[in-house]
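ARCHIVE CARD
Drawer: 12
Card no.: 0347
Subject: one protein chain, sequence and derived structure
Cross-reference: see card 0346
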Amino acid sequence: MTIPTLGNPVPDFSLAATSGKTFRLSEFKDKALVVLYFYPKDSTPGCTTEGQDFRDVYPQFVAAGVEIFGISRDSLKSHENFKAKQAFPFELLADTEELACQLFDVIKMKNMYGKQVRGIERSTFLIDQQGVLRREWRKLTVKGHVTAVLAAVECAFIHLTEGNTMTHTQHQHPQRLFVLDTNVLMHDPTALFRFQEHDVFLPMVVLEELDQHKKGVSEVARNVRQVSRFINDMLSETGIDAIHAGISLLNQRLSGYWQRCGKRIFAIPNRSNCIAICQRIW
């Protein structure tokens, strides 16, 4: 079975789910975004925290038209106990034969207490209403992860429901969404301007993490400060009140990037107190 890649359809599959249900990916086509999060084992500390994080903001996912499903190799009985104990409002899928794990290539060799063991690498995947893989998070850490996923899906929701009300509605929206994370910007501040085929979303959690790395003389600190200068320059020409209508890159300091990428940059405060920087091709 072919491993799905970003921008391509995910092959249909089905798994037994809690609450006596059966999950089939194709049933969500034209209905909802789907978040699949793979975790190593029920009732372990990290997996419990991750599930609780998804649980605590579940209403916001629902408001954005998203269905969440947790997947591990545990049995349905184990899943039912885990779900009941933690009061998860979403279903857990039992991948006892590793069907979905193999499909998404999340089974890896991991080092545990000095020994190599085979297990699930914590990963999350965002699939759109057409069954296309739009975002993936691999080898992730639990802290802050759910916030990043929610930021990505809420930006997608904005595009589906509010995009036509913005300025220049006669122009076609790019079809793909790319969430710039902290590591990307720490190593390449010009990443803000590099994605001609994408809408680019910059969550507030990323801005907060960047702010923590501003001090010092390291290359990372210099890069982070450059990101701040870019964003400040975008706002300085027109002021914060113009953020909804779109912030032009046509200013002296950014003119080189304007000529290279040919875009305006839009920012939309979203429902999670985040800033979305959406690049549109004119």
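Annotation on reverse: Confidence is low (pLDDT under 50) at residues 160-175, 245-282. DSSP finds nine helices and 14 strands in the chain.
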